[in-house]
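User: Some background: our group keeps a shared notebook of sequences we're curious about, and every so often someone picks one and asks for a predicted structure to add to the entry. Today it's my turn. The entry only has the sequence so far, pasted here. Could you supply the structure so I can complete it?
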Amino acid sequence: MYIYVKMYAQFKNFFFLNVSPLVKLGQEKILEFDDLLPSPEEIKINRDLKVKPIDLSSQKKFMFALLMEQKNLVLKAWAFYLLGIFSSLSTPLFVNLFITRLTELTKANGGGIYHILPVAIGIGLIGVFIGIGYQHNFYSILLANLKIIARLNRLIFEQALKLSQKARQNVNVGDVVNHMSSDSEAIADFPMLLGDLGWASILLIGSVSMLFYYLGWTALVAVIILAVLMPVTRKIAKNFIHLEDEMMQKRDRRVTLMSQILQSMRLVKYFVWEKEIEKQVALVRSEEVSARKKLAKTEMLSGLSFVAISTLVLFVSLTLHVLRGQVLTPALVLTCVSLFGLMQEPIGHLPGVLSRLINAWVSAKRIISFLNADTVTEDLNVELSTVDSIIRFNHLTYKIDGSTFSLRNLNLEIAKGSTVAIVGAVGAGKTTLLQLLLREVNPSEGSIFVGSNKLGYVSQESYILNATVLENLKMGRTDLSDEQIQKALFLSNMDRDILNLPGGLLTEIGEKGVNLSGGQKQRLSLARCFLQETEIVLLDDPFSAVDVHTEKFLVQNLLFDAWRDKTRIIATHRLEALEKFDRILFLENGEITGDGKLGDLMENCPGFKYFFSHHLDIQGAESDSSLDKILTAKDNLPESRLMTDEDREQGAVKGSLYWDYIKALGGKKTNQKMIIVFLGVGVLLVSIFPLMTQWWLSWFPAHPERMMPIHGVMVYGLIALISLCTQMANQIFWLQRGINAGIELHDSMLSCVLRAPVRFFDSTPVGRLLQRFSRDLEAVDIQLQWSFEAAVRCLFQIVVSLFLIIVSVPFVLVVIIPVGWFYWKFQLAYRASAREVKRMDSIRRSPRYAHFKETLNGLPVIRAYKKQSWFREQFFDLLEKSQKASVNNFLLNRWFSLRIPFIGGIVSGATAFSLIFSVHNNLLTPSVAGLVIIYSMSFWGALNWGIRILSDLESRMTSIERIRFMTQISSEIDVFSSSKTTVDENWPSRGHIKFVEARARYDDSLPEVVKGLSVEIPASAQVGIVGRTGAGKTTLFQMIYRFINLHSGTIEIDGIDIASIDLETLRSRLAIIPQDPTLFMGTLRSNLDPYSRKSDQEIWKVLRDTELEELVLGFKLGLETLISDSGANLSQGQRQLFCLARALLLDAKIIMLDEATASVDVVSDAKIQRVLRQELKGKTVLIIAHRLGTVADLDFLMVINEGQLESFKRPTTEHLLASEFGLLPT
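Assistant: Of course. Here's the predicted structure to add to the notebook entry:
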């Protein structure tokens, strides 16, 4: 019984019967992910932490090692491939045997009808064996493909988890994501491509051997021609390597640029860079398109050259055969046609196979380079011999490449349980010291010893996951109780904030914490740190974005109470609590010039004394007061689920979508309809010419009395030449139109995305948007026009084949009509499931890449908490889900493709029997019957290819669906439109701002953020804006920039309602320094003045004003110094100062600063405030700040509470201490 059960299971697997319930379900409903079949055991991911090493010494060894790891699946695939190959090679033999016996049937003394019936049965069965062989090969090889992708993805992910800071500065996130997507997929095709090379070689050798059998030594000429012309393919392949590499570089450059743009859209809109960015992207895009054209033309000409070679070989062979005086019979000619058709397939596919092999080779080089990149030190911690010490630096020196800055000769021991504050000016080396402790950077000289592996780290730029608040807090810990979480929220002063969030702890946080304020992000990071098991806590300026009241709460309750038993090291610019620390390290220009308690440093360290005394001068009022009584505001955040799910169309691809693409192919010109007609006519001619050629080859040998054989061969040569030229013209035309369609769709999508409202970017993951500009656009650029052309051509070929068969043997309709009806229903059932599974396959890729990108952005935090395994498990879950969708896609394709040969076999067999009947009754000649049988034998292939290419086209059209969705985004109101109100070029000339009963909300379904605000800011006034976190301070700036539109009330600037001014004019007349400092990959100059509008003198003046001149002069390349992705090679404070300099270059009448100096020391802050007062006289300046010292000397102090104006007065000492400001002594 067990044997029968096992045999039945094997039978089901062999015919993919387990897929049938899924197909049936797809007819009844729209398939969802949970409906999919489970993945086969052989591709399930082994989550063992030990990653098997792989040879990275060369591309050859690397690729071979990957191949050998999948040898069982690959050998099984190749075994089935051989079945399909040898079945294909038998096709010409059956054609020859069939025509020969049909000819004998017409003779008086020929064989009987029963002599040919076994041949007809063989013709019906041969396609079945070809189908079984090829489809099982595809299935096994695609499973191997998925396993290689998983293997490469894991290698890349593991390497990414270990990347050093130096390595991260030399790569950008876009490139690394490409390694995981495009490069991994290219390499995973290697086993399949090797099989295709073997397939091509065997078919060519077998075909040439049979040519020798049928043509004798004439076939030797064919071999010589092939041998002479084959070097052309090597030259094409060599050129292809160069063009492929060039194209990939251009693509990566554009994708990297788009990645930076999409991550910084607020900055783009603040500075009104949309038009310049469009031009910049258009320039990079034009270079990419140019490279793609060269590559596509090379591939196209390569394919046509192979077709030309096979045509030339057949022409020369037939010519020589006639010249030798040999007889040309229909059986011989049609057998040769079948053989050369067999040869033409591998020859035609060779360019594509070679190009993909080259692509895989280039991708292997890129991945090997990444896998060999510098990594962090694995052995982080050791036990110290000194019991009381937990950290020790021995003669440590650290130098930064390309900069004069260095940390020099650090000798340091830190006791267990102590509190250490690291202070100093911006760029003194505070963050670098923490990075050395984390081993994110390695010392140039000396050594570091850390006596614990339980580190907690709160980075200067908060690392927030695109997940719920609870998931951000836990970060993988499953053993936390509700009481522990509540305690963490209380100690981080987040408990009231959580109560005001729409979904509480289950509120989803957007990418990089986009829907949290800076203070909330820092406090969330502190709460997370408390919940992790730590012995050493490293804090990098953790209070820069919180108000004084909150800072005092955190210092008292968290830093010096809840963490009292831990070793705490904090780099800070907030000096109010220094007297509480056991030890203070004062850094000046990379050296520790002060080390001790506060009193000791004040006595013995002049540099620190000046630094701290200056702080006391400017913070005096703040030391005795706080913002206690400013009421805690509601956060006014968007709904709990901020990030939108990726849109997935359901059902068949809409006809309007095809028409949209057809119109894009036709272009925007007046002759669009004519171009579309030409595209269709071109494909029709390409489909008809092969029939004309083969009809001629079947006709003239059968009528030697009407035409000399040599003349018949010459006519064939002429028809073949015309056919080749038509094919070339058709492909060039489609190529050009396809590229034009890609350009049009890209430009339309870019324009719409750049003009989308800010809320769209807050609710849409950057990874998803980047997919539209990378993978989806690549499908449109490269694959879609060929899929479209192939689908149309295949449709014409099926019609031509049916026409030939039905005209020749009309009574075969008795079989074709029911079989056709069954086929129609069959393909409808298949496509209903296949299109949904393919969409799921596409959609399931994005979360994997988004998670990987998020991991790359938080490596220091992840490594500090030892959370690599948690992120790894999440990645594996996403990878398994993605591969589950891919496997189901493969299974559905195999289920369908394995059944089509049986339908084709019925048609071929019925046609063969009908031809026998027709020839036997003199209704048809054997030569025409031979032509018909060739077309009938290829009919099942055309049917299979037709549906496969149609399904492929549908899947490619999903890229158009997603791109079209981007082109239908609602744009910001009045973006770049003509002004309703014309303003003077010098507007605003005074900078007078007036809010009149202004009310605003993020969305119509959400509560008000600002509630009836009325205030008048005098021209040229400098105003400080204060209030608790979430009170609505930053919202005021967003209202002025019209990121949020008022639903009632007005905002006027110089007496003009800003709602009546177009956004380009409005935003270009304002300047802002946002809370999150954003720099792009490029030079320092390009970051300060991206579009070269300012002179060097103006740039250097601003650098002097912002205390950056000395720093830039210290760079070897000065203004041409390269800035890493997101400014990673600069400190947070330096990035903020450069962003300040960039805004000051605009010379706007109204300037807004949103915590712009939060990450700089108080001395630098004071200098900057002096610059703002001196250099910005006559300008209106609005400053959001948590340091009262920052706003104490301004003209007015605006207190915001729960979106309402609490007060607006001059910030005198009396007023600062007055209860009406809510500033009571503590």
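Suggested note for the entry: Residues 1079-1147 form a domain with the Rossmann fold fold (CATH 3.40.50.300). Residues 868-920 form the longest helix (53 residues).
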